[in-house]
Design brief:
- This protein is mostly beta strands.
- Helix content is about 0%, strand content about 55%.
- The strands form three sheets. Strands 2, 4, 5, 6, 9, 12 and 13 form a seven-stranded mixed beta sheet that branches. It has a four-stranded antiparallel beta sheet with strand order 1-3-8-7, with no helix packed on it.
Length: about 130
């Protein structure tokens, strides 16, 4: 079992920045993919970005250029830095982990799915509210 726990959310004014953290406990060495998601009020959950076990990072087009994902393997902690925050960034932000790689080559599974599907473990989220 893997348990992600998000923190760092809060209320920020438009144009500000936030760094969200996701501390993971449990058997994290098996995880092939970590991802950040968000869900705005009344909207479907959407992927923000992902990082796989080889360090490849992919961002969703809608946030590209304003967000940075990083991971401290020694601390088992995933980060999401969001800059130039906008009211439409208001959402619950979730961290999730996937055990299996999305792609196979020479018998090795690796990578995050491009559609952010089939994540195995989820945190409970941290709320980000942006005021204009």
């Amino acid at each position: 079992q893997v348990q992600p726990v998000e923190s760092g959310g809060g209320s920020v004014q438009t144009g500000g920045s936030l760094r969200l953290s996701c501390a993971a406990s449990g058997y994290t060495y098996n995880i092939k993919c970590w991802a950040w998601f968000r869900q705005a009020p009344g909207e479907e959950r959407e992927g923000v970005g992902s990082i796989d076990s080889d360090g490849l990072i992919i961002y969703t087009d809608s946030v590209k250029g304003r967000v940075t994902i990083s991971k401290d393997n020694a601390k088992n902690t995933l980060y999401l830095q969001i800059n130039n925050l906008k009211p439409e960034d208001t959402a619950m932000y979730y961290c999730a982990a996937r055990l299996r790689g999305a792609f196979s080559y020479n018998g090795r599974w690796f990578g995050c799915p491009r559609d952010y599907s089939d994540m195995d473990y989820w945190g409970k989220g941290t709320l980000v509210t942006i005021s204009s």
